[in-house]
Amino acid sequence: MVIRTMSSLRNASTTQTFDHASPAYRSTYTLALTGRDWSPPPSRPAPIFATALSHSATLPTESDFDRVTINVNSEGACEPRYDEDGREVDERGFPATLVPSGALDPHVYPRSDLAPAIGTEFDPSVQLADILDAPNSADILRDLAILISHRGVVFFKHQDILTPQQLATVTKLLGELSGSPKASGLHIHPLTSDFSESGEFIGKISNEREANGAQISFADERSNFASAGWHTDISFEPVPSNFAALRMHTLPPTGGDTLWASSYAAYEKLSPAMAQMLEGCTATHHADMFKEQASRYGFPLRTEARGHPLNVGDHLSASHPVIRTNPVTGLKGLFVNKSFTKRINELSRDESNIVLEYLYRLISDNHDIQVRYRWGLSDVAIWSNTSTQHCATFDYDGPRGGDRAVSLGEVPYYDPASRSRKEALEAAYAV
């Protein structure tokens, strides 16, 4: 038997899922990937991730997402194929989904899921600085990138010894080790005005106008609707972000939580007809507000290459698929956001406005696909910008700030053969 990634099996004539393997085989690979022993269920129920998902059905856990990437091909594996960046691709040239190595062993790096659809928190004993120093740090960080790509966002508590430079290093390596193109590095935000404190690739999140290198809009520009802030980082760039990390060094006594929502789960709330229509659409994203802020407050707009040769100039606009495939997981999710998405290109303006408002509400109005995180001092969040959106909560007084690093991925694409998360789990559990 040969382990294959899901994307490499999409066009195979005969495939088997993980559940077709022997119990001993399944136990070996479940333990390797999740740190948990596999045990057969007492009976085989109908798939719980059917289209008509019961409200009482158990939602996927971290171990379920690990299983999604396991397939067994009875006909044997093809020779690996690679693109010009050295990334493995499938028979059609799309990136092959990644399989974890087992280096991020849950017994060594304990963690727990915060919500069924999104969010995993590591035990405070897990320190990112120690992971960087580990002899197998590359394997651990690659597996961490895979975990983040499935779970959306992960949290590390009390990262007191982690420096801003180490935060940037972790973020950059997550992208590199999970297959980012060679031309993609760390992003330079167009409003980053001063790099003297922490280096040019480390941004500042601050609610103080005078903060050195601050990148976030000011208090007098906030909407009265808290949900207006939902966004995916820098989706206005031709090559947007895949991973972002934030370490909070200044917190108010209470408030200032951040929410994340799963784009995978938002996609799954679409009717089949709506999903099919949107899978053929693109949308324009732009950030004209940053140019206005730069002019108003005297910030220089960064017009040089912002982490990728395509992210250059003062035209802060790009067109991306409305439904996007995550190259790490092979799963598809909704890729529009209220802050930067302005128009679905294939629809009339009136149609676009109505559809976009509905899609925004799929994110903001569904708390079952969200996780809300209460920050502690020196906590770190790392999230997938490919498959999540996030929103800060401005319910506090006093300073709130942190160090931020953003890595760049690929030009967004939609793979017609990609699956929803439910479809992938159904296939993994199929008889």
TrEMBL record:
It comes from the Eukaryota. One of its GO terms (molecular function) is metal ion binding. The keyword Repeat does not apply. GO terms for cellular component: cytoplasm. Residues 112-400 form the TauD/TfdA-like domain. It holds the Pfam family TauD. Keywords: Dioxygenase, Iron, Metal-binding, Oxidoreductase. Belongs to the TfdA dioxygenase family. This is TauD/TfdA-like domain-containing protein.
